[in-house]
Automatic annotation (TrEMBL):
Alphabetized Pfam families for the sequence: UBD (PF16455)
Organism field: Castanea mollissima
Start and end residues of each DC-UbP/UBTD2 N-terminal domain: 16-111
Highest taxon in the source lineage: Eukaryota
Segments for region (Disordered): 1-27
Regions that span the bilayer: none
Protein name per UniProt: DC-UbP/UBTD2 N-terminal domain-containing protein
Length: 111
């Protein structure tokens, strides 16, 4: 009951504030179309990595929203944010969700 990810801690408003991911660079310059294709492929296969489809859907909505709305989405879904940039999260059952940076922000070498 006293762990930081427990429901009681959440009821007290102890959520990690979501932040914009740090700038990153893809291994080679990519176009916006290529980036969107990578994102679509990830989200299409994400439920196969484990966890609940509803949590994956909430994480996708949060990744595509502005920071304020993203914060509301993860709090409403009961997502426990380990990394403030959403790269590592957990659901209330302890399932781990890892998001690649390319679904959270654009690379610095986008062409």
């Amino acid at each position: 009951m006293g762990c930081s990810g427990s429901s009681q801690a959440k009821a007290d408003g102890d959520f990690k504030k979501i932040q914009k991911p740090k700038p990153w660079k893809h291994t080679e310059p990519i176009t916006r179309t290529q980036l969107m294709q990578m994102r679509d492929e990830f989200w299409d296969t994400a439920p196969h990595y484990g966890g609940q489809k509803e949590i994956w859907d909430a994480l996708r909505a949060a990744a595509e929203a502005d920071l304020t709305l993203a914060q509301t989405i993860v709090e409403s879904a009961g997502v426990i944010v380990q990394s403030a940039d959403l790269t590592i999260c957990y659901d209330e059952r302890g399932a781990r969700y890892e998001l690649p940076k390319y679904v959270l922000s654009e690379p610095t070498n986008l062409i």
